[in-house]
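FYI - complex with tryptophanyl-5'AMP, inputs then prediction.
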Amino acid sequence: MRILSGIQPTGILHIGNYLGMMRPAIALQDLETNEAFYFIADYHALTTIDNPETLRANSRRVALDFLACGLKVDRGALFRQSDVPQVTELAWILSTVTPKALLERATSYKDKVARGLPASAGLFTYPVLMAADILIYDSDLVPVGKDQKQHLEMTRDMAQKFNETFGEGLKLPEPYIQTATETVPGIDGQKMSKSYGNTIDIFAEEKEMRKQVMSIVTDSTLVEAPKDPASSTIFQLYSLFASKEETEHMREKFQRGGSGYGEFKKELFAKLWEYFEPMRKRRAEILADPDYIDAVLERGARRANEIADTVMKRVRAAVGL
Ligand code: TYM
């Protein structure tokens, strides 16, 4: 099976990215029969970043962080989206069979414009490029968080429309969304997102990560009183990193009363810091070998280009180019 996913190099990765996409993506990559294609969506990031230095630096940083989190380079390809420029050709071809009304229904476009992003044509046609990203590798399964679900549905719609128009040609992918981590909450309880400023960052310095965790918004239940674990962001996040036993233990403490949120936050911080310890170590090792990331990206780009060229040959022939 071919697994594919992308991540935008918009800044520092947070535990929403990790739980929603990176952790499942890495787990899928470990299965014997899978080939994994993961890429840094730098073309997409141009819809929000207009500083070349920032884009370059962020792209390298995402590669570094993804590798540090356990991505295995011998089990697939890690590459930059822009190292496979054919994807923009496929996006153009797809755009000619994509109803404008389909794009007008995209909630992420509406959200972004509502948050003040300029409503560029690129932002509007973002889902078409994303569909091309997926379809150009004949992808079977796409691990993503729930916020990308609509984009996956649109991808299937576009592939179907293409196949209806030109005969079979594109493979319809399936989304892979894990229920427990489909929307990871941020420190204010909303979806964790860099643009909401509510993140806990995977590779933040100790002091910074502690500050982020201690800033989790809580209600005003008194220390002595029992607390509801189900509605607590602290408990939710803790359970996503802790063992079953640890989670049950914390649940009992919530329900028993006598412990304050501050204490639970300290436990969450300790858990997160411990969880990411091996990854921080690996990150430092990668950083000590400056050529490693470039070598990985180059190899990834070669493999991705092989597949993209094959699919584009099929697509060009199908449409009459
Ligand atoms: P991006 O860069 O916003 O996010 C990368 C991945 O992280 C997931 N994610 C979350 N999951 C759960 N809870 C959260 N709070 C949370 N925040 C982020 C996202 O769902 C995503 O899986 N459009 C994509 C990038 C992309 C792509 C693709 C993905 C471009 N082409 C092709 C898959 C296939 C995006 O902006 O993700």
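The two ends are 29 Å apart (CA to CA). The CA atoms of residues 35 and 212 lie 36 Å apart.
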